[in-house]
Amino acid sequence: MVINMEECIQQKSKISEHTSETCIFCKIIKGEIPCAKIYEDDKIISFLDIAPTGKGHALVVPKEHYETLIDLPEEFPFLSAVKKVARAQSAALGTDGFNLVINNKRSAGQVVSHVHAHIIPRQANDGVFFELRHRKATEKEIADVAEKISKFL
Predict the structure, then answer these.
(1) φ, ψ of residue 84 in degrees (nearest 5)
(2) Is 134 an active-site residue?
(3) Could you tell me the pTM of the whole model?
(4) Domain that includes residue 135, residue range
(5) pLDDT tens digits, residue range 35-77?
(6) What CATH number does residue 122 fall under?
(7) Catalytic residue among 57, 65, 114, 116
(8) 31 — alpha (psi -120 to 50), left (phi > 0) or beta?
(9) Cα atoms found within 13 Å of the Cα of residue 81, Cβ hemisphere only
(10) Distance set, CA 65 to CA 19, 24, 59, 89, 116 (Å)
């Protein structure tokens, strides 16, 4: 299965929301919309994706509404929850790998404007392909970009 991000955006654009009052994930967190919940604590909820890329495709979502990963507080236990769910997927489904996808902003494929991680369990020859188009860059281009970015750190 080849994942076409533009097609996903078109299919799911009806549920893309920008406020916590109308956000589909906030409604799931409040219990207004049902989900196949697999993990929950006081800050995080995880449930299976309703349009899975493969068996066990889960979402990890902060209970408080933040739009992107950058908006999360530094000490927020997001990655700890992602790791916990990924370990459980592997143990339960017998998979030997996973893709972790966090889209930030519409230009990067974020459909629901509430930060969330997709954890997609993987097995060799499962028919799922993520295509990244790499391009060649000169050493000077790489050095220039590295210098630009490092000035903001």
Answers:
(1) -60, -45
(2) no
(3) 0.84
(4) 5-150
(5) 999 999 999 999 999 999 999 999 999 999 999 999 999 999 9
(6) 3.30.428.10
(7) 116
(8) left
(9) 23
(10) 8, 11, 15, 25, 10
